[in-house]
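Q: Protein A?
A:
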Amino acid sequence: MKPIACALDHLQSESNFYYGHLIPTLFSLKSRLLILKEQHLRYTFTFIDPLITSLEKRFKLYFDLSPEVDEAILASCFHPTFKLRWIPEHDEIMKNRVKNLCINIAEKYIENSSHTEFSVDNVDDEDFLIFSSQEQCFDSRANLEVVQFFNNKNKALTCLDSYPTIKKLFIRYNTSLPSSAPVERLFSFAGFIHAPNRSNLSNTNFEKLVFLKGNDIYR
């Protein structure tokens, strides 16, 4: 049960932990259980197959990388630690599908950003003209930035500063937490603050104290 215990501890951690850790953790957990299975343990061998079967059944969408979990996939791919490293090496079809997904999302983001910045007010004749080749510019820029990011061996979050589009997509898809544990800990802080001798706290002050306490612990 050690792989499962380690996976749970990993998913419930709070410092430098993002939604992008979820799928790589699931893939690693399954791999570790398969390694245990190959060891032909004498007394606990029969326990491993049910664990693997239950894991695959519960997280089938994640192991199949279904479109329903595209946000989790993008969160992992845009995290410098993981990128495409968590995808099995022999599965080229899966790797190409995920890579194309990342490029398409980057293209849409760049195109939407460019349309947002475009204004019809106070434009001269040159700015007014729109050429069809601009769409190709969006594609090449997104493709180039995503490929360069995937080929970069740097695993630190600071490397995102070199890829402005990837950095914004990282923030977009890694905002969610993979576990409710940090939120549940806030309830404990709330219990400490809402003590009998502080029962006259207003809702606003109570929320501020919980917020400050939580940020002080997680800092």
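Q: Protein B?
A:
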Amino acid sequence: MWFPVLLYLLSKSELSAGGSDTTDPDAIFAVNNGTAATDTMVQPQFDNATKREYTAAVGQPAYLHCRVKNLSDRSVSWIRKRDLHILTVGVHTYSSDARFAALHTDGSDEWTLRVAHAQPRDSGAYECQVSTEPKISLSFWLSVVVSKAEILSGPELFVRAGSDINLTCIARHAPDPPSFIYWYRGANVVNYAQRGGISVETEQRTRTSRLLIARASPRDSGNYTCAPSSSDSASVVVHVVSGERPAAMQSSSQRIIPAHVTLILFSYIFNKQFVFDVTQNILISVYLIDCLASKIIHILESR
């Protein structure tokens, strides 16, 4: 009696064991589709709309932005092309130069190479590389420039007392508009509270700043410095003088010396030694007197 029952139970267990392979083909097909879908997954690709040429100022951080779509489990590396040195893999740095680092936010397509305190030697080509087979890469170019301020009036400016001091400063070659542009007189920031009539207009878009000091007096003389946040500074020495206009304040030596040389040559050509000697002595005397007078005037005006 028990033998037929045993056979029945054995036959049922064999059917159950083979069910996953023979009785549910749709389930097997679904699994294969999943594998096939994984094999044929869209490959990683670069966002070709990404900016690929960057400029940074010396001493400022530089950033190169690489965007990779459909990265999946692949890794992104940054390579310096001039020596094929691997700088970063993923978010890990593989350079002894700690200025290089990879920045990435989870879930983002962007992998950024940061070069802190960029130097001119950092200029050149860099490559963003993805570990596909074969590897794919996208090249970038970095230019590190010296950004320096320039005051348009030149290194020295003469202003007549009672007129305005008007200084214009431009941050040349600044890759980005400066966050601020400060004006200094000597070692101190130009103070608006201590003196009225001072104004500063800064246009970040054009990287330009203008300093206006109305009704200047000799007290306003001094060394003025324009200092943008991301550029080397520039200075100008301002002289506020009383009396004649700045255009007429050229040293008399600039007027006398050419005439002196001309007369000496003329006398020499005609072999008039007496005229030569007299002319030379007179002009030298006038020149020395004029220099002495200029020094005295300068001392008096500076008091």
